[in-house]
């Protein structure tokens, strides 16, 4: 008899488990404590115009919105440049308790609890920084995290990430690499994935039970076309039982 395979539940973070974004939390922290304000201004002044241009280009089908969102995520590391890792942990804990925990989606958190009750492996999967996700994963009692690694030189954040950003197709690749390295033996056909963006389609397509979280636009159309479960408003999908 072969080794038993595990059922897993993969949760995206920004927009799925909670309604905010990591960059907003970092900016809120820096403004409150009046640190790196010039860096914050440069970050916002650089990336907001790119985001607006990217949204327009995406609507006109000139190019995917993925390119500017990757830059947005990569540049966020500059707001941590020069901090020691222990200082970064303090910042991430502040962000967790003063920003993120207030914006958790109760209905998605209920699904997370149901997976825990079923003894499914839970994985937090996000483009957010791994050091931050470790804190969130501990707070939410999630088994594993897969995120973007920050470059550290002599115990100090360099202001760069270790590419690639855990985003889009690279998110699926990094997840598969993690599962292989951790030897989790996942049954993808019986597993679940929860995400809110069309850019997470590669993750949703990996599993037999994909769930689109408050989808709109392309993701909503894709979910309806493929018959995926949709969580929107008061509707909460049932966990299908393993055969």
CATH architecture: 3-Layer(aba) Sandwich
Briefly note the CATH topology name: Rossmann fold
Q: Figure out the total of helices.
A: 9
- Strand portion: 15-25%
User: Quick one: how many beta strands?
Assistant: 7
| Rg | 18 Å
Ends: how far apart? 17 Å
Structure characterization notes:
The chain has 243 residues and is of the alpha/beta class. Strands 4-3-2-1-5-6-7 form a 7-stranded mixed sheet. The protein has one domain: HAD superfamily/HAD-like (Rossmann fold, 3-Layer(aba) Sandwich). Helix 2 (37-59) packs antiparallel against helix 3 (66-76) and helix 4 (85-98) packs across helix 6. It has helices at 22-32, 37-59, 66-76, 85-98, 106-117, 130-140, 169-182, 201-204, 217-226, and strands at residues 8-12, 121-129, 144-153, 156-162, 192-195, 209-213, 229-231.
Identify the notable features of this structure and list them briefly.
seven-stranded mixed sheet; Rossmann fold; 243 residues; alpha/beta; 9 helices; 7 strands; 18% strand; globular
Summarize the structure.
With 243 residues, the protein is an alpha/beta fold. It has helices spanning 22-32, 37-59, 66-76, 85-98, 106-117, 130-140, 169-182, 201-204, 217-226, and strands spanning 8-12, 121-129, 144-153, 156-162, 192-195, 209-213, 229-231.
Write the layout of secondary structure elements.
Blueprint: E1 8-12, H1 22-32, H2 37-59, H3 66-76, H4 85-98, H5 106-117, E2 121-129, H6 130-140, E3 144-153, E4 156-162, H7 169-182, E5 192-195, H8 201-204, E6 209-213, H9 217-226, E7 229-231
Parallel strand pairs: 1-2, 1-5, 2-3, 5-6, 6-7
Antiparallel strand pairs: 3-4
Helix pairs in contact: 1-4, 2-3, 4-6
């Amino acid at each position: 008899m072969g080794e038993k395979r595990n059922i897993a539940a993969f949760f995206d973070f920004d927009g799925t488990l909670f309604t905010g974004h990591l960059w907003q939390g970092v900016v809120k922290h820096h403004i409150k404590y009046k640190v790196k304000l010039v860096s914050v201004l440069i970050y916002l002044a650089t990336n907001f115009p790119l985001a607006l241009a990217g949204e327009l280009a995406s609507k006109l089908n000139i190019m995917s919105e993925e390119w500017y969102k990757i830059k947005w995520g990569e540049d966020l590391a500059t707001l941590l440049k020069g901090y020691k890792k222990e200082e970064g942990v303090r910042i991430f804990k502040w962000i967790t308790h003063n920003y993120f925990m207030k914006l958790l989606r109760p209905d998605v958190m209920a699904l997370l609890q149901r997976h825990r009750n079923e003894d499914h492996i839970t994985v937090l999967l996000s483009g957010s920084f791994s050091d931050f996700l470790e804190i969130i994963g501990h707070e939410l009692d999630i088994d594993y995290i897969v995120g973007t690694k920050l470059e550290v030189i002599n115990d100090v954040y360099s202001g760069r990430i270790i590419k690639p950003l855990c985003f889009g197709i690279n998110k699926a690749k990094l997840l598969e690499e993690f599962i292989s390295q951790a030897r989790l033996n996942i049954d993808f056909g019986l597993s679940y994935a929860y995400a809110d963006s069309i850019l997470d389609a590669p993750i949703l397509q990996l599993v037999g039970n994909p769930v689109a979280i408050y989808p709109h636009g392309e993701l909503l159309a894709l979910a309806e076309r493929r018959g995926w479960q949709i969580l929107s408003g008061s509707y909460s999908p049932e966990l299908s039982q393993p055969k």
